[in-house]
């Protein structure tokens, strides 16, 4: 019985580490995407501010 408990604990521990690492990678990817998106929106606002149609 203790062997089965140890096996389950080991499995859940490995799964938890895997999920934690995956979440960390996902958070880093999201941060990179958000920073690129914010710089992209800044570029868009800069372009729209420098080019106003009808206001030559």
Give short descriptive properties of this protein.
rod-shaped, 1 helix, 56 residues
Describe the secondary structure blueprint for this structure.
Blueprint lengths: L1 H49 L6
What does this 3D model show about the protein?
Helix content is 88%, strand content 0%. With 56 residues, the protein is an all-alpha fold. The radius of gyration is 24 Å and the shape is rod-shaped.
Q: What is the total tally of β strands?
A: 0
The value of Rg in angstroms is 24 Å
Largest sheet: none
The arrangement of helices and strands along the chain is H
Helicity, as a percent range: over 70%
Distance between the termini: 81 Å
Inertia-based shape: rod-shaped
The tally of helices reads 1
Low-confidence spans: none
* Class from secondary-structure proportions: mainly alpha
Mean pLDDT equals 82
Proportion of residues in β-strands: under 5%
